[in-house]
Amino acid sequence: MARLFAHARIIIGALALLFVVAAAAPAMAQQPTSVNPTAAAVNEDQLLRQLNQISGRCTLPDQKACTIEQPGGRDWRDFHQVTLPWIAAIAILGMLALLVVFYLIRGMVKIENGRSGRVIVRFNSLERFVHWVTATCFIILAISGLNITFGKTLLLPLMGPEAFTVWSQWGKYAHNYLSFPFTIGVVMISLIWIAGNVPNRIDVEWLKRGGGIVGNDHPPAERFNAGQKLIYWIVVIGGTAVAVTGYLLMFPFYGTDIAGMQLAQVIHGIVSGLFVAAMLGHIYIGTIGMEGAFEAMGEGTVDENWARQHHALWLEEEKAKGHAPSGAAPRATPAE
Amino acid sequence: MARMKFLCDADRCIECNACVTACKNEHEVPWGLNRRRVVTINDGQPGERSISMACMHCTDAPCAAVCPVNCFYTTADAVVLHSKDLCIGCGYCFYACPFGAPQYPKVGNFGSRGKMDKCTYCAGGPEADNSPAEYAKYGANRLAEGKLPLCAEMCSTKSLLAGDGEIIAQIYKERVVKRGYGSGAWGWKTAYKETIAS
Chain A residue closest to B187 (CA)? Predict the structure, then answer.
């Protein structure tokens, strides 16, 4: 009897549930047949307008992967493909053209009174070592860097893809590793030569009189004239700029994001191009542009007459210190 | 030939990450690299959307334009591929890419960039189709076997579509008409300079 009652209870319960569901059905049908879940949805155009990038949450350990769109790279592409090659090419070829024209007009600046045969120490061995370490690194960095910007236009068609990749791969290694001695060199240069490179009144006078570059005037100068001071500050400021931006690119995402790296490359590219152009001028005046100039950094000594012509105040200063010019230069071997 | 594209229907993506896993497994992509990833925007808020993103195989691809060694090439199917033999790992394609697709294994000294890796649209590389050399460098070449990219093929909600651009755009348009809404083809304006009118 009890079992029969239990069965009846289940059947009644089921009927009651059915009635409730049937009664509810028309109410559900009255709700809107479709909802628009995109009404509040995130919108691509809107997100890009706000931040110019779209990021979210992702489950990867590499959280940089959580940014899915950043069209800012298109601006960087324009810079790298159009603006930078123009800036670098105009600066470097323009400087070369200027130097050729200048050499044809002016020729080598001679030591006016000929060599005296007496020499005075201009750069000691530490100074020359630092100069040449930095200079060697700079030349290799410049060639491997220019290869990244101009190589595929100028060298790739000549070398073929495989050889060009081998060359560029070694260029990349050289560029990355030689950046360290170069940076140390720039720091050393800034320290050992800061004393003689603070601009002063003599530089104003020197510049007013054309510095001996324009005309045949030889305004007096201390150890470094205004032109040399300019080179010093180009090396210190330009070298710091390329080093800082270069390391940001070499160690991606340390202290910067993708937009920061694009900006770093822009600065690195422009400063490097102008730096190379400036150093071409420096190399010119230190070699074929002026008689007696190279030996200052080559052997470390200069002829007394050269010193009097170009750095009269420095020569007086050295003499006052008791560093009088002495002996014959090692190169001045007696005639047979 | 077809113009191959990816299309992620954000209104269907359920962030299951099957596409990510399928890609990793199919190509044996090394630890730390992901050719495809799923990102959820406004996670946990009303209107959140998940999008699966990889290399979009752009028209006039920025990576190819900025590459200093010209290691990129575009196939007849408009798939953007690259040669790991020519790549020098400079990182420029990564600066240019709007989708963060190129990645570099940290195999160089002090963890510097190795040769770039990215989505190949399951189309391998310059080596002979489905050769062991091609597989080792780029993974499987499904396109050469007449198959579409595995990420899209195994997408459980068919959110991620791969195939000829016009065909997948048509599929997407029909969906939008049928259900009455669509948040658009993410990345198409940036990658292909076009949108799908919805």
Answer: A69
First to last CA, chain B: 26
What is the pTM (predicted TM-score) of this model? 0.85
- Distance CA(B22)–CA(B150), nearest Å, equals 7
| pLDDT value of residue A253 | 84
Which chain A positions have a beta carbon within 8 Å of B181's beta carbon? 36-38
**Mean pLDDT, chain B, as a whole number?**
92
Q: Is the pLDDT of residue B91 over 80?
A: yes
- pLDDT score of A333 more than 60: no
pLDDT the model gives residue A173: 92
Q: What is the pLDDT of residues B1-12, one digit of tens each?
A: 789 999 999 999
* Token representation of residue B164: 């000829």
Is B41–A43 a contact, with Cβ atoms under 8 angstroms apart? no
Residue A187 region by backbone torsions, left for phi larger than 0, else alpha for psi between -120 and 50, else beta: alpha
User: Are A43 and B100 in contact (CB < 8 Å)?
Assistant: no
CB contact under 8 A, A68 and B100: yes
For residue A151, give the chain B residue with the closest CA: B68
Specify the long-range contacts of residues A282-286, CB closer than 8 Å, at least 24 apart: A282/A231, A284/A99, A284/A103, A285/A227
Question: What residues have CB less than 8 Å from A174, skipping those under 6 apart?
Answer: A140, A141, A144
Cβ pair A41:B49 closer than 8 A: yes
Which one of B17, B68, B95 has the shortest CB-CB distance to A168?
B68
> Which domains are present in chain A?
124-275 (1.20.950.20)
User: Domains plus CATH for chain B?
Assistant: 4-192 (3.30.70.20)
Q: What is the pLDDT of residue A90?
A: 97
Q: How many Å lie between the alpha carbon of B130 and the closest alpha carbon of chain A?
A: 23
